[in-house]
Structures are given as structure tokens and as C-alpha cells.
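Chapter review: from sequence to fold.
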Amino acid sequence: MEGFDTIVIGAGVSGVTAAKLLQRAGRSVVVLEARDRIGGRTWTDRTDGNPTDRGASWIHGIDDSPVAAAATAFGMRMVEFTVGGYQPDSRPIAHYSPDGTRLSDEEAAAYAADIHAVNADLVEVIEASAPGDSYRDVTEVVLARRKWSAERTERVREYLEHRVEEQYGVWIEELGAHGLDDDTVNGDEVVFPDGYDRLPAHIAEGLDVRLHHVVESVEWSTHGVTARTSRGGGFTAASAVVTVPIGVLTSGAFTIDPPLPETHADPLSRLKMNAFEKIFLTFPQKFWDDGVYAIRQQGSESRWWHSWYDLSALHGAPTLLTFAAGPAAIQTRGWESADVGASVMVQLRRLYGAGVPEPIDVKMTSWQEDPFSHGAYAYMAIGSLPEEHDQLAVPIGGVLHLAGEATWSDDPATVPGAMLSGHRAAQDVLGHDIPISDVWA
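The C-alpha cell string follows.
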């Protein structure tokens, strides 16, 4: 057994943030990471020499963002690329009608105005919702109040379905009524042309990170913690910060003994891992319009593939990003990337014609298959409330601390949420406040 002041389980952004702050406060810390790399779900693939963020991509709003402050301090290049909660306008978007023709500027503006009207009404309806209401339930209440034509209503209903899928990777009837309460963006959104993984790599510099250490069990009492790994070794400490994703925390492959108290097990039972995959298609030449930030289509043909984002400026080649989200991700699970690409191309050729060239490369993520995440990120199932994210982070027995994106109420499912949760866990371990800027100072 090796002994430390604190064991941190997981070398994602949350884990390395907590470890760096504790180490700088004078504590001895070890970080146990199951993967062969640092970063967790912040993963940049460089196998073809071109940085491709298969996990986290964006800072969703740089105003007052600790991640933006850290990235600036580390000298990471950032490029503005604002997606803003599956926005219907404010950036140049090519909207296509159900019959495959592009909406005029006037038609697109009217469509966006309908969406903004529904969004405004949703605030009150969600606030008055019952614990068992889904996001479908609250949106249908608002749509019914509008008394629009069937066609007009269906276009906005469809948009709401796609927004839930793209924001949280789940079907609208499975997301709790409060599931998008956090869907706000403060300032521009940015991406990293050199790769997001440089953030956790910079934070982890100087830390004792043990890769290929799959933690199978955590035993705790008020006297301390023992973590046992698949390598047969064990680690002991006065405290532990557990940052594994919800999918791992609730799996049979990871046990906490004694089990989590009801104060934590109850809210945990209403958080689920989503089905959300990225698909990158690179083409020999560009076939979509210049100045178009995103392409979107309406109607029944958009059931799986409805939105494409132009990443050409980042990838140095004509590249579109789309998502398999919710039902599409579940039904294409296990497909070869070429088969998924062929399915996507049916829709692109529907919009742009039979002359659209074959992609020269198709990449697809497989977070649903990942044994160290079981999905991309967590969502709020029926009955869940926003504050339950924070309930998971209340220290247990004075020694056990849960952290990670799913434990931060204000901005879950994001890298800032992960970083802030790691900062909170470090403060709870130390018993006093410390500036988050110590992560990058």
C-alpha cells in the first residue's frame, strides 16, 4: 500500500484541477487514471496529424470562464465558434424546408421568431412544472397556447426535439422538465485549433499521475480511504476525490464500500449517461455556400441528420461536423464509420444534389462503447432537479468527495463545470477557500 494525503480518481479536467490545487497547498496527492492518457472526455485525436477533438470542443461562453482564463494563461489558441444552445439565428445558418429548398431570409427570420417566442414562454411553464414532467410535456403546453397552424407548430416542435438531442444527447421525452435550465451562454463561444487536451495536460504538469490504473473499489470510513486497482495494488489516504463519470460511478465495475448514503444515491439515480457521438466528414472540395456557419434541415428527413457545422477553417480542409444524438446514436451504435457516413450523405445530397462528392474521410466517436465513461456526459432524467447536481458534491464522512461535470449545477456537462467542481472538492478537502487561479498561476 502506498500512502498519500489525498487520492484523486480520474485525470480528467476535474481530477487534475483538484490535484493541482491540493498539491500547491502542500498536500501529497496521487492521481489514478484508468486510461493511457490524461484528459478523460477532453480528448484530442492527432493520429492523422490534424487535431480533432473527439470529446469536449467548446467553451460555451468565455465571459468569467475559468477555462478561458486558464487557456489564456497557458497560451492556447482560441477561435470564436458560437453555437449557443442550438441557436436558430444570430450566426449565418442555411435553413432548409421539409421539401429540401432553402428558406428565404424572411422565412428563416419568421421561423426563428417563433422559436424565440416559445423560449420566452417556457421559463414560466418549466417553473410551474410537476416533478414527473418531461421536457416534452412543458414544450407541448407552450405550443398549445400559441394556437398556430399544424405546420407551423410542427416545425417548432421538431426544432425543440433536435435541440434536446444536440444539447444533451437524449430523446425529448426522457429529459426532465428542468433539463435545459442551464442552457445559457455568456459571451462568445470558442474552440481550440491546436486541441482542447492541452488544457488538462498543462494543469497536470508536475502531478503524480498513474496511468493504466483502473480503480475497482473505494473503501472508506471516517478514518480514511483505500482505493484498490486492477493492477493488484492499493493506495491509502486521509481523503479521496472521485471524479469518474456517472456511467462509471453507477456501474458494477466500480464499487464504493460502504455504498453512497441516500442523500447521494437518490439524486444519482436520476442522472443518466447520454448517447451522443460526433461525426466528422472531410471532402475533396467544398460544396456548401460560403459564409454559412451551419446547415440545418426541417421535416421527416431530419429525424437523424439535421445539422452540420463548417469546421473547414479549423481543419484546413473542407470539413463538416454533425452529431448522432439520442435515438440516432442508439440506433447507429456499432455501425462502421463508412456506413454512418453513407447515411449522412443521403441527406446532404438531398439538399445539395447528386453531384456532392464522396467524403475522403469519415471519423466517428464511440463514447457509448467506452468502458471508462459509458456515454459522453450526464443528463437529468424525469424527476431530477438542477440543485441535485450540487447535492452529489456534499462531502461524505469528511473523507469522500465526488466531483466532475455532473456534480456542478450551474453549468453541468461542460469543461468549466468540471474545473469548478474540482476546485470545490479541493476546498472541501482543505477546509478553507483557495483561489481557482492557483490552477494556472
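Two observations follow directly from the output. The first strand starts at residue 2 and ends at 9. Residues 34 and 332 are 27 Å apart (CA to CA).
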